[in-house]
Specification:
about 140 residues, seven-stranded antiparallel β-sheet, 3 helices
Length: about 140
Amino acid sequence: MQNLFKNRVFFLLALCFGFVSCGVQKTEMTYSYSDQNNNRYQITSTQVRYIPMTTSESSSGHYHGGNKATVSITTETFKKISTLAEAVFASDGVTTQRRMMTSVLSRQKDGIHNQVIVVLSEERKQLETALRGLIH
């Protein structure tokens, strides 16, 4: 009987440890950026994916953001993009209303998602320049 109790305690401890370790799973930081034309950039520590607006998605039926692209990046490049993105999050260019000429920046890490709407600002210009430089 005592052996059965020890086995149950061990099983329960192992089960609890499994739940706790699953709940604290760490994930890498990722960013998503949608510019004022709704061209999208998905940024991870290893790549930047560019998903352009197509003419069929465009409200005018004429705008096209170019060709899709996926570019590998170094850890150093990711750090630079991350620094620029975090500057956008901290800038005065953040607003609560989606309107003309705004963009959207989001980040996700460890299940926490943050998103901001960004008006034209120096920080936004620097981030867009860096992203376009990688793709074009």
